[in-house]
Design brief:
The protein has eight helices and seven strands; from the N terminus they run E-H-E-H-E-H-E-H-E-H-E-H-H-E-H. It is α/β, with parallel strands linked by helices. Helix 1 packs parallel to helix 2. The longest helix has 16 residues.
Length: about 190
């Protein structure tokens, strides 16, 4: 993996372990020489992630909307910043050309980016690993909902596992490095 898009919250969350996980992810990606693409923000987990990548000599690119940039939320330390008009354009640029995506804890925006990636993977339009860092069970209710979608016939079982899940940064990266996308669509 040479480049990974990281989706995460523009808020820090209520517990310090969320920021610790974002910092560890940034450090690990930088030390592995993986180019990081992120939402461009200086606040919340996005800011923590970017600070860690920069502190460890990594390469990072921000993709931020004009609206958010006008609010001065763009990370001032990120010299490679792409300003786009819309959130949909931002999502496309974050995913396009990467060797994988990772979702850390976050809110609507993070889920929007995660599910866009999963939808593209389900349609075999994105054939790279998609990781979910389940920090201290943050995403447990979402994972239960995915299981429920399978149980109720709205999601094929094989598509349920398009998302690689781990509670630990090192474990998630190791699983993503071993990921192999199915050559033939299983939904046909």
């Amino acid at each position: 993996m040479k480049s990974i898009a990281v989706f995460c919250g523009a808020n820090p969350g209520t517990e310090p372990y969320f920021a610790q996980a974002a910092a560890e992810m940034g450090q690990q990606l930088a030390q592995r020489g993986i180019h990081v693409l992120f939402g461009g923000g200086s606040v919340g987990l996005m800011g923590v992630l970017a600070d860690a990548v920069l502190a460890h000599g990594g390469h990072i690119t921000g993709v931020i909307t004009e609206q958010l940039n006008a609010l001065e939320l763009g990370h001032p330390g990120v010299s490679d910043m792409i300003v786009v008009e819309s959130m949909s354009e931002r999502r496309t640029l974050l995913i396009k050309g990467t060797d994988g995506v990772i979702a850390l804890p976050g809110g609507y925006g993070t889920l929007d980016e995660l599910f866009e990636s999963l939808t593209l993977a389900q349609l075999h339009q994105y054939r790279k690993p998609i990781g979910l860092l389940n920090v201290r069970g943050y995403y447990d209710p979402l994972l239960h909902m995915l299981d429920r979608m399978v149980e109720m016939g709205f999601l094929k079982k094989q598509n349920r596992y398009l998302c690689t899940v781990a509670a630990d940064v090192l474990e998630l990266l190791a699983q993503m490095e071993q990921y192999e996308f199915a050559a033939t669509p299983k939904w046909l």
